[in-house]
Design brief:
This protein has 503 residues and is of the alpha/beta class. It has 15 helices and 20 strands. It has helices spanning 3-8, 50-69, 72-88, 90-101, 105-126, 172-185, 200-212, 228-235, 248-258, 283-295, 315-327, 347-362, 422-429, 445-452, 486-492, and strands at 17-19, 22-24, 30-34, 41-46, 132-140, 149-159, 162-166, 189-193, 219-221, 241-245, 264-268, 274-277, 307-311, 366-369, 393-396, 413-419, 437-441, 459-462, 480-481, 494-502. The chain folds into 2 domains: 18-23 and 51-269 and 481-502, Aldehyde Dehydrogenase, Chain A, domain 1 (3-Layer(aba) Sandwich); 274-474, Aldehyde Dehydrogenase, Chain A, domain 2. The model is unreliable at 1-11 and 376-384 (pLDDT under 50). The strands form 5 sheets. Strands 14-15-16-13-12-17-18 form a 7-stranded mixed sheet, sandwiched between helices. Strands 9-8-7-10-11-19 form a 6-stranded mixed sheet, with helices on both faces. Strands 5-6-20 form a 3-stranded antiparallel sheet. The chain starts with a helix and ends with a strand.
Amino acid sequence: MTTAHKQEAHHPDTHRLFIDNTWREGGDGTYPVINPGTESLVGHAPEASASDVAAAIAAARRAQKHWAATSPAARAALLERIADLVTERAEEFVPLLQAETGATIRVASTMQLPVVADRFRRYARGALEPTVDSFPAHPVAATPLAAGGLTNAAAARRPVGVVGCITSYNFPIVNLAGKLAPALAMGNTVVAKPAPQDPLACLKLGEIFLDAGAPAGIFNVVTDSGSAAGAALVASPDVDMISFTGSTTVGRRIATDGGATMKRLLMELGGKGAAILLEDADLGKAVMAIGSTWAFHSGQICTAPTRALVHRSRYDELVAGLAQFAARLPVGDPLSPKTVVGPVVSAVHRDRVEGYIAGAIGEGARLVTGGTRKERTADAADLPGTGFFVAPTLLADVTPEMTIAREEVFGPVVVVIPFDDEEEAITIANSTEYGLYDYIFTADAARAYTLAARLRTGNVGINTAQRHPETPFGGFKQSGVGRDGGSYGLHAYSEQQAVVWQS
């Protein structure tokens, strides 16, 4: 541990690891968490050592047998208490979430914390859902293996065991709740490893668990500034499952390393959403949906419709409509209720997004709007020149072969690509390695439903960017493995066991 780290351990804004219902300093010191909107210090997060991660895994392993034996009603009651406490303490959580993520205050207060409470309540109900499917009795003739008889069977869902939850930076506590709540509902215990950029609210969730009376060890949080803690979870033979949300590159590494111990995997990875606008599309609806790439958390969402594939007869009209939409979006101070577009999460990510924009222009794309750093509206003109801002960016004259049309940018960037017929639209939509969420805009819902079957993607929105919370969520191809959401989340965090007997 460096001298600087030793001093930071006593900083009043220093947070601690949550392991086995106790708070402990990070074995390797701390690291700073920076506000993306101001570049100021939010606090110091603990830098977990290898022994810290091992202690968290051991605590989860010790707790799992007892937690699995706890009645579904008791598990449900705990999850309900957690949901209530999250709601009661919104005034504590929202400022911290906003500061560490850089989300606008509107997103932080309406799309971050309330969704956490909703997910705990949903899986409080989920803990009470049936876990056994019975089969009709089946007459079986005698064999050298066993006597004949009327054979009965059931398929029961059992806990996987200890789950390592490695979460994303865009919606840190929401993403964690979407993993943690169904995992606990099914009798698993959890070691969470939040993204390095904004782990503080995830650590603070430990306070809620303590006050809710959660048994020691069922929920543990380890943090670090890199990937070592997550890699330790993946490598450990005492971790039975990894639930990961993040980049496809990291997902591939988890799949490879987790295979050594035959880890169960649930992975929601990258996306490159295509919004297909047929010639009869409602342009107003399409512009609003595509514009969500800019207007919702600065495009840092894996489901964003970042590729607008439009029938050539509507191409100029769509480009003009999107340009007008982007021009109306206030960019600036995320604490202002007027702001729609805040910063991206870090300087590194801002530079990455800018690199994609410059690369696209170099390949022949036309910059219609945006592409600049720290662009703000007049309302925010008095802000200091700080923060990791990228203006809403629209690129036209893009071809499917360009890098900007194929790789996930994860920022406020939309590209427009024309097509001449349905066949070409489907070909372009399916041409990337991703397959998470696509969209179809047309006046003919039956036509859209037929086309949806040809899209190699886990989700399709028809004339909307809205999602349904009970549907299975996940991706095709390089966009992931497995499904969560609704009751599918309960299935994801359980193993099926067949039980057979004769009467």
